[in-house]
Each structure stands twice: as structure tokens, then as C-alpha cells.
From TrEMBL:
Keywords, sorted A to Z: Oxidoreductase
Any Gene Ontology biological process: lipid metabolic process
Protein name: Dehydrogenase/reductase SDR family protein 7-like protein
Presence of the UniProt keyword Oxidoreductase in the record: yes
Organism placement in taxonomy: Eukaryota, Metazoa, Ecdysozoa, Arthropoda, Hexapoda
Length: 310
């Protein structure tokens, strides 16, 4: 897909000079900001979706940096596997990881689960919302129940968990809430309408929250990864809610989740508010969606017609 997009925008390179300038300035400013870091050592970090994918890698990186990690997911057996992997990772000075079984789609259960998490270490310093589900289907083919399931996990789960931890963070005048969104939270691609809509909702929620708690000592970070090499394609939902069960070449060629986790932890240490972790082309599409929407929509239309992209 990325090579196809590159060929489509080739005639318009002269218009893209400002993006290169902005990208360079962003890199320079980011480098300056990264000189000012907080330490993650001893911080209590609750991570949802920690049983696989980005969440698992993020948990490992926080653990490596000395955080008190609370691993959360629906799957006890997978959390046990991740916990054992961390314990056996030769981080002899690390705090033992803890496990919290929590289904973020069960919204009513989240407040009690958060209380359980608070009892582990007496506080929660950082929440990383990494639990998520992907869907892939055209709108005309899709069941409404798929949209409901994707929104329940990807959006309402983030909202419910944030609302459960926020009162104590405000009371203590400190805390950090992180949401693993997606490049598709900044621009939508064909056959991902449910997923992109849920991630757009998360971005809007986090933007509003950031402004509301700015004076309360609470940091809010939105992370927007591009393609990352995980098993998310296999478990993604089809039009009728079944598991896709296949590889996705774009995901297979994506970033290593270990590298993504490293950037996420850097963002938390530097109190970064918003971070896109993606190659040039996805960043270009985000830029075009704002400054040259007609070209962006033209590219999306061509992608939708491609038989090689699903």
C-alpha cells in the first residue's frame, strides 16, 4: 500500500516541501524536549492489553526501566506467560510484576477492578490503555454489532478506565494517562471504518481531557502507531464479527513492537502530549488530510479500488 501511495503523490512533491520543514522542526524540538525526562523507576503502571502485541512489549519496557508493572487483560494464562517472561528477563533489581484480570468491554466491572489495582501498590501513577480490537470490512457488508464491539473495547473501555482512575489522580495532583490510538485515529483508510472511528473517538476524548486536567498535575499522552508486527490481523473482526485468521502483509512489514514500546516509554518519560510512530507516507497522509484534502480523498479512493489491499 505504501508504494502505491508514493506513486500517486509523486506529481505533487513540490507541494510537500512544508511538510519536510515541519518534520525537521518537530525532530529538533523533540530532541530538546527529550533532554528533560522523569524517571520511571518505582512508578506504578497499569497496562491494559498486556497479554500480547504492543501492550506486552510496553509492559516489558516499563519493567526494564524499573516500573512497578500491573499487567491487565482478560486472559489469565497469557498474563501468567508474560509475567514469567518478565521475571526471567534477568532484571534482578526490578519490582515483581502483578496481574489484574480485567475485561475493558465490561464497563460496569471497571471501577471495582481499579480498586483492586489500587490495593496492589496503594497508588496508580500511569495508566496505559493498550487493549484494542481491529476490524476489516466495507461498511455495506458490516454488521452493526461489529461497530458496537469495536467501540466498546477501543473507545468506551478507555473512557471507563480513565473515569475510574481520574478522581484520585486529581486529588493527588499527579498522574499520567496514555492511550495507544493509531495513525487511523488521525486519518481513516478504506475497510477500517469501525476501527478508525473508534480511534478518532479516543483522540478526541484525550484532547478534551488534556485541556481539562492541564492544571491538575496530570499528563495526557496519545500515541499513534502505524503498522506494528503483532498478531492483531489474526484476531481482527470480519464484517460479521468472525476472526479474520490471516496474515496482513502491511502488518508483517511493520515496526518491531519492541521499538514502538521504547518510543512509548520515552514519550511518557518526556511527558509528550501527542506522538505519531510511523514512516513518512502515513505522516504525509495525515498532513494531506488537513492541508490538501482533495488529494487525500483521491488517494483513498484509489486504495479502495485496489484488489491487493484488504
Amino acid at each position: 500500500m505504501l508504494s502505491m501511495i508514493s506513486s500517486l503523490v509523486a506529481p505533487f512533491w513540490i507541494l510537500l516541501g512544508p511538510l519536510a520543514v515541519v518534520a525537521l522542526m518537530t525532530r529538533v524540538i523533540s530532541g530538546i524536549v527529550k533532554l528533560r525526562r522523569i524517571s520511571l523507576n518505582g512508578k506504578v503502571v497499569l497496562i491494559t492489553g498486556a497479554s500480547s502485541g504492543i501492550g506486552e512489549s510496553v509492559a516489558a519496557e516499563f519493567y526494564r526501566r524499573g516500573a512497578k508493572v500491573i499487567l491487565s487483560s482478560r486472559r489469565q494464562s497469557e498474563l501468567n506467560r508474560v509475567m514469567e517472561s518478565l521475571i526471567n528477563s534477568e532484571q534482578s533489581d526490578a519490582y515483581p510484576p502483578a496481574i489484574l484480570i480485567m475485561d475493558v468491554s465490561d464497563l460496569d466491572s471497571i471501577p471495582a477492578k481499579v480498586e483492586e489495582a489500587y490495593r496492589i501498590h496503594g497508588r496508580i501513577d500511569i495508566v496505559v490503555n493498550s487493549a484494542g480490537v481491529l476490524s476489516r470490512a466495507e461498511v455495506i457488508e458490516s454488521s452493526l454489532s461489529v461497530y458496537q464491539e469495536v467501540m466498546q473495547v477501543n473507545y468506551f473501555g478507555v473512557v471507563a478506565l480513565t473515569m475510574a482512575v481520574l478522581p484520585r489522580m486529581i486529588q493527588n495532583k499527579r498522574g499520567h494517562i496514555v492511550a495507544i490510538s493509531s495513525v487511523q485515529g488521525r486519518m481513516a483508510i478504506p475497510r477500517r471504518s469501525a476501527y478508525a472511528a473508534s480511534k478518532h473517538a479516543v483522540v478526541a476524548f484525550m484532547d478534551s481531557l488534556r485541556a481539562e486536567v492541564a492544571d491538575a498535575g496530570i499528563y495526557v499522552t496519545s500515541i499513534h502507531p502505524g503498522y506494528v508486527k503483532t498478531n492483531i490481523a489474526h484476531v481482527s473482526l470480519t464484517a460479521q464479527g468472525d476472526a479474520y485468521g490471516q496474515e496482513d502483509p502491511n502488518i508483517e512489514q511493520g515496526y518491531d513492537p519492541v521499538d514502538v514500546a521504547n518510543e512509548i516509554c520515552d514519550a511518557v518519560e518526556c511527558n509528550t502530549q501527542d506522538l505519531v510512530i510511523a514512516p513518512f507516507v502515513p505522516n504525509l497522509l495525515i498532513y494531506l488530510r488537513t492541508v490538501f484534502p482533495a488529494l487525500h480523498f483521491f488517494i483513498m479512493k484509489r486504495i479502495a479500488k485496489s484488489e491487493n489491499y484488504y
